[in-house]
Amino acid sequence: MFDITLRPLKDGLFDPCCKYIPAFVTPSQVTGLAFVFGLLSCYSISVTHDNNKLALVFWAFNRSLDCLDGALARHRGTASDLGGFLDLLGDFIIYSVLPIAIAQGFEAAGSHVWIAVAVLEATFHVNNFILFYVAAIAEKLSKVEEKGDASKGKTKELTSVMMRPALMEGMESGLMFTAMLVYPSEVQALSWTMAGLVAVGILQRTLWVVKALG
Q1: Which DSSP letter does residue 16 get?
Q2: Is 12 helix (H, G, I), strand (E, B) or coil?
Q3: DSSP secondary-structure letter at 85?
Q4: Cβ density class 51-80: b for 16+ within 10 Å, e for less
Q5: Which residues of the chain fall below pLDDT 70?
């Protein structure tokens, strides 16, 4: 919801850092390192919730590097579709594994906790389908617009694929996952809350598809 609005703040934080990155370090290597830190965060919290501080440190590195890789690619003029693909792939894997890892580390987790996590994962699955179907439609519409008024109806994109704005985007997802790591014993309530927010985003994008294709 706030990804585009907060883009200048993100750029202001990470763009100046790019000049300090050694030339031999590539954006793809930063992406890979972010993925490793994400996995370490998942592993730490899955072992026991007593490790949530360590998991939070790994998570902070994951989120920071996830912002830095794109900034570095743009700074060097090496942004590519492959880089964008690997970046999103890593994000989707970590986002899928993290709630499961938190539930796994919750010794008192019963079926009620796992049901909440399962519903959340199901909303991710549906949202991902909607997300990339919307991206395909948006790409087609943008090509049509380029033949006419290229400046009309275009949205500033923050990723390598076109994504329609919705209630639950990158920043909001990051905050929800951070809350899960800070309060792992509340994973059930947070999973239900996030599932509801993702469902609203699914509805928003579905209505856009219906309007675009109707």
Answers
A1: G
A2: helix
A3: H
A4: bbeebbebbebbbebbbbbbbbbebeeebe
A5: 1-6, 107-109, 144-164
